[in-house]
Amino acid sequence: MIARDDAELLLAMDGASRNSGGWDKLLELLCTQMQAGRATLYDADQVLGCSDGSRPARPDCFGALRAGRVYGAEELADRAGPFDPDFSRGDSRVIAAQAPPLWLWLHAGRGAFRATDSARVSSLMPHLAQAVRIGQERSSLAQALDAANALQWRAGLGWIGPDGPDTTAARLLAEGGCPRPSVAPGELRSLCDGLSAYGLPDGRIMLRAARDLPSPDRIAAALGLTLSEARLARALGQGQSLPDASAALGLTRETGRSYAKQIYAKTGVSGQNGLVRLLWCSAVAFG
Fold first, then answer.
1. Beta strands, E only, the chain
2. pLDDT mean over 175-188
3. What pLDDT, on a 0 to 100 scale, did the predictor assign at position 203?
4. Chain-centre distance for alpha carbon 176
5. What is the mean pLDDT of residues 66-93?
6. What is the b/e burial string over 144-182, where b = at least 16 CB atoms within 10 angstroms of the residue's CB?
7. Which pLDDT tens digit goes with each residue over 245-269?
């Protein structure tokens, strides 16, 4: 049977793992329950949260504490360095975790913690470490999803499935002012604003938006070309003929041919068709 106070803390931990701003509220609740003046949670790099909203620096002596053991004020005072707080003022309880590295510091300006307080902190720390670990994993997954969505948007590709459009498809439809299409498997349909839809065999619909190649400076950096060569490579990749691309860029035919030879030699392709494949079928197209 979980005590009511512990249940409230566990629910607060779950909320904090979903929202990094929830650690302050969790620690505020812990302070209230344990009659502490301040509770601070650190990871290896930063203050994850503090009950009063401040961000006190992590004392240097915390780095030498053994994980899983609760340290009292006297032990902390013995270990404190010259730049650490004066642990003899008030009472403190500190416990560390190893995976991930964490430190929980409870401080009471008045009164003293009891042995039962130390036992409770010890029992809660594994759950706290798990909540932090889950929060870190969620954050990493969210960042990976954001990166994938950004690449998908740059490619102009979105999918509509049984559950509706994905993030990119919804954005493509909204920006183009297009209604959600109904496309049979194998059917290709032009929608609006350069957007097309193709019915996949599994019943999903793939949306494709017209996209330009990245800017010349990005192409130059990616392929080791000069900026002038990259401008011509981009024009050729967009489908212009060599004479038209040269004229549009203010190059003579001879200079255009010379640049093209340099582009093909540097990129290892045999001609314009190979350059088009390289630009559109590699990471270069994603910018």
1. 38-43, 47-50, 70-72, 91-97, 102-108, 157-161, 164-165, 188-190, 195-199, 205-209
2. 90
3. 92
4. 28
5. 95
6. eeeeeeeebbebbbbebeeeebbebbebbbeeeeeeebe
7. 999 999 999 999 999 999 999 999 9
DSSP secondary structure string for all residues of 84-101 = S--TTSSEEEEEEETTTT
Answer whether 43's CB lies under 8 Å from 100's CB.
yes
**What is the distance between the alpha carbons of residues 206 and 194, in angstroms, rounded to a whole number?**
14
CATH of domain 216-286: 1.10.10.10
CATH class of the domain whose range is 4-142: alpha beta
Sort 196 into a burial class: Cβ within 10 Å, 0-12 / 13-18 / 19+. Answer: middle
pLDDT of the residue at 192: 86
The pTM of the full predicted model, rounded to 2 decimals, is: 0.68
The domain segmentation of the chain, as residue ranges, is 4-142, 156-209, 216-286
The position carrying tokens 């309880």 is 93
| Residue 1's pLDDT band (cuts 50, 70, 90) | very low
Residue 2 has pLDDT above 60, yes or no: no
pLDDT at 150: 86
81 burial level (CB within 10 Å; 0-12, 13-18, 19+): exposed
Euclidean distance between the first and the last CA atom of the chain, given in angstroms as a whole number: 56
Give the SS3 label for residue 109. coil
Tell me the C-alpha distance between 259 and 275, whole Å.
13
Query: Can you read off the two tokens belonging to residue 85?
Result: 């707080």
Task: Give the separation between CA 68 and CA 103, rounded to whole angstroms.
Answer: 10
Higher pLDDT, 97 or 188: 97
